[in-house]
Amino acid sequence: MEVENRAGLLREIQRLKQERDAVILAHYYAKGEIQDIADFIGDSLALAQIASKLDAKVIVMCGVHFMGETVKILCPDKVVLVPDLEAGCSLADSCDAADFEAFIKEHPGHTVISYVNTSAAVKALTDIVVTSGNAMKVVESMPKDEKIIFGPDRNLGNYINSVTGRQMVLWDGACHVHEKFSVEKIMKLKAEHPDAPVLVHPECRPQVRMLADVIGSTAVLLKYATESDATEFIVATESGILHEMQKKCPEKTFIPAPADDSTCACNECSYMKLNTLEKLCDCLRDLEPQIHVDEAIIDRARLPIERMLSLS
Length: 312
Ligand code: 13P
Ligand code: SF4
Hints:
Elements lengths: L5 H15 L1 E6 L4 H6 L2 E3 L1 H8 L6 E5 L2 H10 L4 E3 L8 H4 L3 H10 L4 E5 L4 H4 L4 E3 L4 H6 L7 E4 L2 H11 L4 E2 L12 H10 L5 E3 L5 H4 L4 E2 L2 H10 L4 E5 L4 H8 L4 E4 L20 H10 L8 H17 L1
Parallel strand pairs: 1-2, 1-3, 3-4, 5-6, 5-7, 7-8, 9-10, 9-11, 11-12
The site of 1,3-dihydroxyacetonephosphate (13P) has 10 residues, from loops.
């Protein structure tokens, strides 16, 4: 299908959405134009919570593959689409299920907590799933002496260890976007904008978190930016979040923190940006590409996700 102009494309998406009885979800890191047309936008936790309550026949997840899998696990009878199946995640990829299983075997007697940024197969090996929005709360809900394996994000894991005084055993994974924020460049921005609070996602390295005024999930950072009296903010998470920050606070200035190795001013997740309006339109028309998860994996992965939802 050729849709000639952008207005026509947007109309066609709306038409197909009605025809298919579909709901469009978008993560804060999705392209701004996708966030604008979505029925719901949110962080990983909010999107999982919303998906678990939807009646629609079709759910389009404008995020990355593991987010589509989470929706499919929660709603196995629905058609779940991700506009571009190549939208993966370096953090999820840093934790292969067979290797994680061996790691668990090396640490008997441990409760396994996995960040939502994992494959369905890793979730199936997990006792409880968490997101950056509730990880601290879930860990704190466990007895102090509980032995815990936390995977796959070593940065989120060592952040929780440092705040709670726990010694969770950490899987050595990381997100290629959040690992790259530059201490030097953020220090320079701080010197230029001394009144700007620094907002940092917990997937960032400890040396970046040390520069933070606020550490939290994308939803927490957005809430802070909205409620704070400050007028300028330095934002160290994927730069897609600036779209919603700017929409909610048009009078404030949001300065993206740059990566170490980039010449541009911000830090983008190339996977998230693979989803485009054209692909969104195509997937609603074709009902492809769909997310499929093996039934046995769904059976095992559902409980750890539901545990997370009930604790949030
Ligand atoms: P949150 O939505 O939990 O802030 O997650 C960040 C992330 O890396 C999603 O890919
Ligand atoms: Fe994965 Fe990092 Fe992209 Fe989030 S920002 S989807 S953790 S690669």
